[in-house]
Automatic annotation (TrEMBL):
InterPro entries the UniProt entry points to: Spore_YabP, Spore_YabP/YqfC, YabP_sf
Provenance organism: Paenibacillus macerans (Bacillus macerans)
Protein name: Sporulation protein YabP
Listed GO biological process terms: sporulation resulting in formation of a cellular spore
UniProt-listed NCBIfam families: spore_yabP
Length: 93
């Protein structure tokens, strides 16, 4: 796994749990006010919290800013699928 990450770059800046700035984002897979799922250079990143919304999105530069109360940040293991708790999971129950 470490070999696969060489040469890839990502930065996460969390300010007071209210503003999260992320670089290295390839795609926004799903989002709602409680959960975001992002495809990043380093794998899928799940962000969970309350009243989450996109402040800034620039996929050409790979930058995303999210506002709201951030509770957890977690990278999903390679090959695993999202929990289905996000927007798409809620729509297709």
């Amino acid at each position: 796994m470490v070999e696969q990450l060489k040469g890839k770059h990502q930065e996460l800046h969390l300010m007071n749990r209210k503003l999260l700035e992320i670089s290295g984002v390839l795609n926004v897979e799903s989002f709602d006010n409680e959960e975001f799922l992002l495809q990043t250079e380093l794998g899928h990143l799940a962000i969970r919290g309350q009243n989450l919304h996109i402040k800034n999105l620039n996929l050409e530069q790979g930058l995303v800013s999210i506002e709201g109360l951030v509770n957890t940040l977690s990278y999903l293991e390679q090959g695993s699928h999202p929990s289905g708790k996000g927007l798409l999971g809620k729509l297709f129950r």
